Amino acid sequence: MSFDAWIIFALFWLIFVTTPGPNAVNCITNGMTLGFRRAMVGVLAILTQATLFLALSALGVTALIAASPVAFTVAKLIGAGFLVYLGVRGWFKAKTPVVIDSRPASSVYFRAFAIATINPKSVAGYLAAFSQFVQPDVPIWTQMIVIVPTALTLTALNYTGFTALGAGIGRAALGAVFNVWVRRVMAVCFIIYGVLLGATTTPGRV
After folding, report:
1. 3-state DSSP of the chain
2. Cα separation of 27 and 60, whole Å?
3. Hey, which end of the chain has fewer CB within 10 Å, N or C?
4. Given this model, what pLDDT does residue 49 score?
C-alpha cells in the first residue's frame, strides 16, 4: 500500500469508526455506569471484534456471508432483536439511580463484543475497506501489516474517547431529571439501531 493510499484509507477508517453507532452508545453507557477504567474492558472487546473482522475480511468470509441472503437475514434479525431488547430494558431502568455497576468484567466484555459483532455497519465497513483499498496484485498479508495497526489504533482512540465522554457525563449527571433523559436517549438509540438493522437488506441486493 502506497503512502497516498494509506492516507486515504486512514481518513476512511477515521470517518467509519467516528460515526456514532451501537458501539459508541454502549461505550458512553459503560462510561456512565462503570467509570472510565472499568469501562475500558468494552473497548477491548471492540478491538477483539475488529481484529477478528479484519482477519475474516482478508479471508473473504464476510464477503461470503454478505452474499448469502439466508445467513445475512438470520444474523440481521438476531442482532435487531438484541439491540431493541437493550433499548427497551434501558428505557425502563432509566429512573433507577446510577450506581457503580457491579457487573463482572467478563459480562461487560461479552456484551460489548456482541454489540460490535451484530452491527451491520461493521460488515459494510470492512467489505468497503477491502474492496476499495486492498490491491489485488499485492499479497494480502503484506497489506495487512499496514491496514491492521492503522485500523486498530484509530478504533481504540475513537472508542476510548466515547468511553471518556460517558464517564464525564456520569460524573456530571447529579440531577435526577438530567440523568434519566440522558439514559433514555441512549436507550432510544439502541431501539432505533435495532429497527434499522432489522430493516436493512443484504449488501448488493434489493
Report:
1. CCHHHHHHHHHHHHHHHHCCCHHHHHHHHHHHHHCHHHHHHHHHHHHHHHHHHHHHHHHCHHHHHHCCHHHHHHHHHHHHHHHHHHHHHHHHCCCCCCCCCCCCHHHHHHHHHHHHHHCHHHHHHHHHHHHHCCCCCCCHHHHHHHHHHHHHHHHHHHHHHHHHHHHHHHHHCCCHHHHHHHHHHHHHHHHHHHHHHHHCCCCCCC
2. 29
3. C
4. 93
Q: Mean pLDDT for each 10-residue chunk of the chain (206 residues)?
A: 79 79 87 90 95 81 64 69 79 69 84 85 67 68 85 95 87 57 77 74 47
pLDDT of residue 70: 75
The residue behind cell 468484567 is 105
Q: CA-CA distance, 177 to 69, in Å (whole number)?
A: 44
Q: Are 91 and 181 in contact (CB under 8 A)?
A: no
Cell numbers standing for residue 61: 468470509
